[in-house]
Design a protein that fits this description.
20% of the residues lie in helices and 18% in strands. By secondary structure, it is an alpha+beta fold.
Amino acid sequence: MSKAQRLAYRDGYANHAMLFTGVDMTRNGTVGKFIVESSNGGAAPSSHAMTTNWFREHVLYAVVDRHLLSPNVVASLSVKPVVLPEWDAMAKGASCSHCMHAHDGPHPRLDEAGGNSGKTSR
């Protein structure tokens, strides 16, 4: 499935953050891969190489310092944002893998059923 299809069918969602610590440029000046540090859900951080193809296919959000953006992207920031409906996969950021909603604590339905590990989904 494509990235768009995974999002439309709720098969893709943001579930953790990674820190970009470097970039590997190709000889022609394009990005070959990114060096990222992943949080690994509480384990010790580890560094990985992420190809640009993997980035395009799997990254949903990126926070970038404004001074690093192209003039076209900076200009687009002045456009009135589109407010997404609550049920949209991109509306809430990191979401629960069980129901695709953001929770501040343990999953309420799993907690009631006794199946919650105590982990938060954010």
